[in-house]
Q: What sequence folds into this?
């Protein structure tokens, strides 16, 4: 459940043309914007005043945009383009039929897994918009965080660690597949040796021993 105060509600639909006609998009990406996106609605606007925050922040506004999609497998660059060209911080609620996904852009696009409506959860927590934005990063970008012993790490350090873990998991999967397909015993042994090294590194990253 997205629990934003009623004072933040906007509920204004934005014409798609306002985006793809004014954003610096390549023609293929503009075509995907038209083919992938059904509608865009500004659901909420979070500001210092309507949240009754006392602390000042570098961030002036955080907006929640719902984007109804025509297909679930959409091009994430469309969402990136909207976020990168907007002066405000944006949270996206992506909707395809009965499936929902949260996303935000923070150096790159982060997305949660697809969920049912009653599984969607987002809460603004903090004494400033900066703190609330960091809280949203935790809830979305670190939605499936695997690392332990993260109390002393900053948001950026946790994101970097998560990326290392994800890259290593892909490398493990790739090496497992290669080892399974390899016919020559010597090469297969070398691949399994490398696989064990990767698995050890992964455990160290997850348990804070790296």
A:
């Amino acid at each position: 459940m997205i629990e934003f105060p009623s004072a933040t509600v906007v509920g204004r639909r934005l014409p798609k043309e306002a985006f793809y006609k004014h954003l610096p998009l390549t023609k293929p990406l503009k075509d995907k914007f038209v083919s992938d996106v059904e509608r865009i609605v500004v659901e909420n606007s979070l500001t210092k005043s309507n949240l009754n925050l006392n602390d000042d922040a570098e961030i002036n506004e955080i907006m929640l945009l719902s984007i109804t999609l025509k297909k679930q497998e959409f091009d994430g660059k469309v969402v990136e383009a909207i976020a990168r060209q907007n002066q405000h911080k944006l949270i996206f609620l992506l909707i395809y039929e009965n499936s929902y996904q949260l996303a935000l852009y923070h150096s790159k696009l982060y997305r949660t897994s697809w969920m049912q409506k009653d599984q969607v959860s987002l809460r603004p927590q903090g004494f400033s918009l900066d703190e609330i934005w960091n809280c949203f990063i935790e809830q979305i970008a670190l939605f499936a965080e695997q690392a332990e012993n993260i109390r002393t790490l900053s948001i950026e350090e946790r994101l970097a660690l998560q990326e290392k873990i994800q890259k290593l998991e892909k490398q493990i999967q790739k090496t497992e597949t290669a080892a399974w397909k390899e016919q020559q015993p010597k090469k297969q042994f070398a691949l399994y040796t490398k696989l064990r090294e990767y698995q050890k590194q992964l455990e160290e990253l997850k348990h804070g021993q790296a």
Strands lie at 9-14, 37-47, 61-69, 89-96, 99-105, 109-111. The mean pLDDT is 88. Residues 48 and 196 are 51 Å apart (CA to CA).
